[in-house]
Every structure is written in structure tokens, then in C-alpha cells.
């Protein structure tokens, strides 16, 4: 008999199965599958629900329950509710704590414990959510003060790398070359349109008219309209062709998995970071690449292209101009730094020219081979060096066939696609460089004549 009951957990001990009510940690005495067993579980669930609904007024649990029933909570986006709920779940252990005992030092203790368990970002988020809930309750008579208002947030250590750093152009090219076709689409949406990960994975074909994407942000619920960059249009149009446009329904997501089914955020994140870790391990990209970093990349490139704060805000959808001003200010500093060095070079000859020439000559006599860490954008494969569009020589092809490096590394090194490397190694292209005996062996797909 198959039975699905909420909050029931089975344990096996010494060959015997026991059942417990998970939230209350109560062992269930009735025999599994009987009406008595069902009634026992339902009674415990009802008791637990009553305890949650009739929270003692004046406690943190009562304040959180009241906030979650408010119009302010109802208007929050789903992603925001999930983030808040993670904090509420963490604080559940102190639901019965009276609000009068929650002062500044108590909040600092909560913050520090959250830091020990979940690191700095979550610890600061606990303080932020507590402050928001207390401000809501303060105007409704739950508490006279907001004990989290003056609690300082933990600062990022100066030695710690910046989170979600912008990508470089070379890093973006390498990652796009390494990703399978279905994962290039969400990464392109992040880089060219500045979409968040959740928006990129869930955006529908009905929102794209061939020139722009018009949707709503999952995090804020605000409307979003972003003209599609020409590269993004090419990528999306290629994805339409790859999956056959006749199969599309208006509610189909643009991003799908390898089997053509909707890709979840967790599924995308798992596959995306698997590729990133491999590229970092092989030293093709520097550590610290994240999907959120693509959003920063889009804003940074907009600023460096001369866009002002309002332009950047129109693309990224930030409610405040603070982040847009940050990117614009950084781009302006870069331009000023370049101009300053140009003026310095024009005004002074710091090292005599003859000494610089000597240094170059000495370096040319003793070249040092460094591992290549960047690659050009993928180039369409061409057969034969006699072609005006050829990107490989006979010597390159022979070196590729003799190499034991991975196909991804060879593709990046020679600036070609992985599929071309595979075809070269299998002898499907550049067959005139194969040994004569090998060329004469008929293929299993070629009929003998």
C-alpha cells in the first residue's frame, strides 16, 4: 500500500521500520497504513498548525506570522519571498523569544552566529530582513523600537576578491566556446541584455519579437524592455533554427536543456559552474566568474561605451541609480587613467630609447614560453591551406594530430572550434595529410565499387 502523508519520516533500525512525525519529533504508535495511523498524523499536523497560528503576541514568531499575512508581503516578488523565507526559517528556533529581549546586542549575536554558519552575505541579510520586519511592526504596535536599525553589517575583508566581478571580453569568448549550445543562450542573455539568472532561464519566446525582449523582472516585478544586441539576435535566431520554429508555442521558454525540456535554475547553475571550474582548473579563465558577473559586465561595457547612468539603469532595471553610478564612475576613472598615461608618455622619456631597445633585444634572445590563457572567438572550420579563408596550416594539423592535449585546449590554442579539432583527429578532414594506406581504407559509410 502506498501512502503519502505530510511530515512523516520512516527510519529503519535492526530490520524494523519506525515512523516519526518530523516537525514535532514524535514517534507514531499506530500501525502504518491503518486509519488510526492517518488520524494520529493529522492530529499532530493540526496541533502544529494551531501552534503556528496562535503565536504568543509579543514574540518574534508572532511578528513574522503577522508580517507574512500583510499586504506588504503579498506584493513581494516570488524570488524575494524565497530569500526572506530562508531567513525566517533560520530564525525559527527563536520564534518564542519575546520582542522585549531582542535588543541591539542580541541582534549582533544572531548576526555573528549566522556568519559562522552561512558566511558574511547571509549574516548581513539576517540583519537586513530583521530591520525591515521590525520597521513594519513598529508602526503597528508590535514593538516600540527597531533593534536591528543600528547594527553594523559585516564588511568584506580587503584581501577577499570582489564577488561577481565583471568578465573580460576574452573570458566571455572562451566560455561561450566551451559551453554546449543550449547553455550559450542564457549566458548570452546575461551578457548582452543584463538579465538576472532567474529571468534568463525563465524568459519566454513570446517576449522576444526579433528585435527586443519585453518581459517582467522576477525579482522586482517591474516591466523590462531591452533591445537585442545584434550578436544576441544572431544567437536567438540560431536557437530558433536549431530547435525548429514550427515546434514553438508562445509559452515555451527560450532556454531548454539538452533534451529540449525546460531547464531549471538549479540545473543550469550546476552545468554552468561545472564548465567554469574546468576552465579555471586549466587556467583558461581567472577564478571568480559568476552569472551575476555577466550583469555587471553588461553595465560596465555600457558605461565604457559612453552610456550615462539613466541609460544603464534602463537596461539593467535597477530601481536606484546607485549601482549604475558605480559603473559609470569606474568607466570614467578608466578613461581618465588612460588619458593621464598618454599625457605622461608624451611629456617624458623615462627610460632612454636605446635602453628600451636593448631590453627588447635581450628578451628576443631568451624567449620564455608561457601557457596561453586566452583564445580567439570560434572560427568556422575550413579544409585545405590553399583556401583563402584557411586558419590552419599543414604544420598546425600535424601538430594537432600528434598532441595529447584536450580538444578544448587545442581549440582555444588554434582559435578554432572543438568540432574541427575532433574531425582533424578522426581523419574526417585534411585527409590528404593522412598516410597513404589510411586514405585508401574505405569508410564504413562508403559503398565499395
Q: What is the terminal separation in angstroms? A: 65 Å
Strand order of the largest sheet: 1-2-3
Strand fraction equals 5-15%
Residue share in helix = 40-55%
Uncertain residue ranges? 372-383, 437-449
Please summarize the sheet with the most strands: 3 strands, antiparallel
The CATH architecture assignment of the largest domain turns out to be Orthogonal Bundle
What is the arithmetic mean of pLDDT?
76
Short description:
By secondary structure, this protein is mainly α.
What report would you give on this structure?
With 449 residues, the protein is mainly α. Helices cover 52% and strands 5% of the residues. The chain folds into 4 domains: 8-53, no CATH class; 60-138; 169-338, hpI Integrase, Chain A, CATH 1.10.443.10; 394-440. The chain has helices at residues 35-53, 60-68, 71-74, 78-90, 104-138, 169-178, 181-193, 197-202, 230-243, 265-281, 291-304, 309-316, 322-347, 353-365, 394-402, 407-414, 418-426, 436-440; strands spanning 8-13, 16-21, 26-27, 212-216, 223-227. The strands form 2 sheets. It has a 3-stranded antiparallel β-sheet, with no helix packed on it. Strands 4-5 form a two-stranded antiparallel ribbon. α11 crosses α13.
Amino acid at each position: 500500500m502506498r501512502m503519502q502523508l505530510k511530515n512523516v519520516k520512516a527510519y529503519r533500525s535492526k530490520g524494523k521500520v519506525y515512523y516519526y512525525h518530523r516537525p514535532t519529533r514524535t514517534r507514531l504508535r499506530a500501525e502504518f497504513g491503518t486509519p488510526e495511523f492517518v488520524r494520529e498524523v493529522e492530529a499532530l499536523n493540526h496541533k502544529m498548525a494551531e501552534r503556528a497560528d496562535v503565536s504568543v503576541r509579543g514574540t518574534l514568531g508572532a511578528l513574522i506570522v503577522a508580517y507574512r499575512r500583510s499586504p506588504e508581503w503579498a506584493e513581494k516578488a516570488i524570488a524575494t519571498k524565497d530569500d526572506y523565507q530562508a531567513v525566517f526559517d533560520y530564525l525559527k528556533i527563536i520564534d518564542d523569544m519575546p520582542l522585549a529581549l531582542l535588543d541591539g546586542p542580541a541582534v549582533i549575536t544572531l548576526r555573528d552566529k549566522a556568519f559562522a554558519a552561512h558566511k558574511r552575505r547571509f549574516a548581513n541579510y539576517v540583519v537586513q530582513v530583521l530591520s525591515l520586519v521590525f520597521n513594519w511592526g513598529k508602526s503597528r504596535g508590535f514593538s516600540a523600537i527597531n533593534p536591528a536599525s543600528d547594527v553594523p553589517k559585516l564588511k568584506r575583508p580587503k584581501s577577499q576578491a570582489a564577488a561577481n566581478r565583471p568578465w573580460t571580453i576574452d573570458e566571455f569568448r572562451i566560455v561561450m566556446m566551451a559551453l554546449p549550445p543550449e547553455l550559450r543562450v542564457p549566458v548570452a542573455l546575461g551578457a548582452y541584455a543584463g538579465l538576472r539568472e532567474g529571468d534568463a532561464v525563465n524568459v519566454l519566446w513570446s517576449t522576444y519579437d526579433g528585435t527586443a525582449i519585453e518581459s517582467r523582472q522576477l525579482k522586482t516585478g517591474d516591466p523590462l524592455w531591452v533591445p537585442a544586441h545584434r550578436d544576441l539576435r544572431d544567437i536567438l535566431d540560431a536557437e530558433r533554427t536549431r530547435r525548429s520554429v514550427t515546434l514553438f508555442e508562445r509559452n515555451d521558454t527560450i532556454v531548454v536543456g539538452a533534451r529540449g525540456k525546460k531547464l531549471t535554475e538549479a540545473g543550469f547553475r550546476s552545468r554552468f559552474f561545472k564548465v567554469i571550474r574546468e576552465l579555471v582548473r586549466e587556467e583558461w579563465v581567472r577564478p571568480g566568474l559568476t552569472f551575476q558577473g555577466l550583469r555587471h559586465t553588461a553595465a560596465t561595457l555600457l558605461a565604457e561605451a559612453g552610456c550615462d547612468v539613466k541609460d544603464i539603469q534602463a537596461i539593467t532595471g535597477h530601481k536606484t541609480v546607485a549601482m549604475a553610478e558605480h559603473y559609470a564612475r569606474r568607466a570614467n576613472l578608466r578613461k581618465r587613467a588612460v588619458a593621464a598615461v598618454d599625457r605622461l608618455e608624451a611629456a617624458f622619456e623615462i627610460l632612454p630609447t636605446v635602453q628600451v631597445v636593448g631590453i627588447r633585444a635581450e628578451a628576443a634572445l631568451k624567449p620564455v614560453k608561457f601557457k596561453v590563457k586566452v583564445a580567439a572567438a570560434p572560427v568556422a572550420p575550413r579544409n585545405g591551406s590553399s583556401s583563402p579563408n584557411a586558419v590552419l596550416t599543414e604544420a598546425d594539423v600535424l601538430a594537432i594530430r600528434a598532441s595529447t592535449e584536450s580538444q578544448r585546449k587545442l581549440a582555444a590554442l588554434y582559435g578554432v572550434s572543438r568540432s574541427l579539432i575532433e574531425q582533424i583527429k578522426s581523419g574526417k578532414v585534411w585527409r590528404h595529410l593522412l598516410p597513404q594506406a589510411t586514405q585508401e581504407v574505405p569508410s564504413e559509410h562508403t559503398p565499395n565499387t
